[in-house]
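User: Design a sequence. Structure:
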């Protein structure tokens, strides 16, 4: 059993079935996302590239979102975590976001998250789909919940991403003492207000 603030991780998008077919779908999806980005790739395109019927993709993955998570080997629970952060409304969203990010990165999912981040940093063709997924499906969802104007949301999502990625890289990749040695509760209290300003404050 998990508490409200605990993160339970399972493998992304895995269902029983023919693993050769699942592997072909994942391979085609990775190529499609690299070539067209997350936004420009459709399940129909990916199915055609994999040589399978589009309906078969839904046997393994519920959505393009879940397919992308499996392709990047990211936790399938990410959409649920985003919904949990958004559910509280705009007030306090910044602190909830920092808390959830730290909980996720401090969980058993940390190795796969590090791997996904390194892939985005070192494989230029994968940077675009990761960037689009982050801004459209994660930060975009949070800003829509705060009823931010779509054009303004793009600007604010970029600022949110810069702060979150700086925190993650500093704490988990570079392991800066000022971030590693601090309890998560202090980072939430200190970084949260900055994210809140990016959500609904005056820029």
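Assistant: Done.
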């Amino acid at each position: 059993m998990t508490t409200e603030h605990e993160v339970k991780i399972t493998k992304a998008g895995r269902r029983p079935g023919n693993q050769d077919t699942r592997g072909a779908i994942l391979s085609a999806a990775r190529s499609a996302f690299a070539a067209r980005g997350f936004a420009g790739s459709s399940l129909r395109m990916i199915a055609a590239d994999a040589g399978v019927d589009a309906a078969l993709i839904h046997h393994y993955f519920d959505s393009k979102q879940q397919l992308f998570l499996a392709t990047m080997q990211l936790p399938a629970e990410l959409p649920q975590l985003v919904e949990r952060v958004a559910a509280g409304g705009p007030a306090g969203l910044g602190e909830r976001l920092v808390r959830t990010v730290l909980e996720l990165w401090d969980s058993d999912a940390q190795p796969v998250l590090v791997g996904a981040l390194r892939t985005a940093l070192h494989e230029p063709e994968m940077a675009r789909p990761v960037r689009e997924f982050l801004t459209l499906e994660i930060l975009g969802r949070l800003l829509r919940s705060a009823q931010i104007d779509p054009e303004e949301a793009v600007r604010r999502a970029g600022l949110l991403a810069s702060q979150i990625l700086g925190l993650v890289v500093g704490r988990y990749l570079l392991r800066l003492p000022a971030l590693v040695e601090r309890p998560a509760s202090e980072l939430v209290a200190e970084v949260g207000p900055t994210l809140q300003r990016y959500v609904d404050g005056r820029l």
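The first helix runs from residue 19 to 36. Residues 139 and 157 are 6 Å apart (CA to CA).
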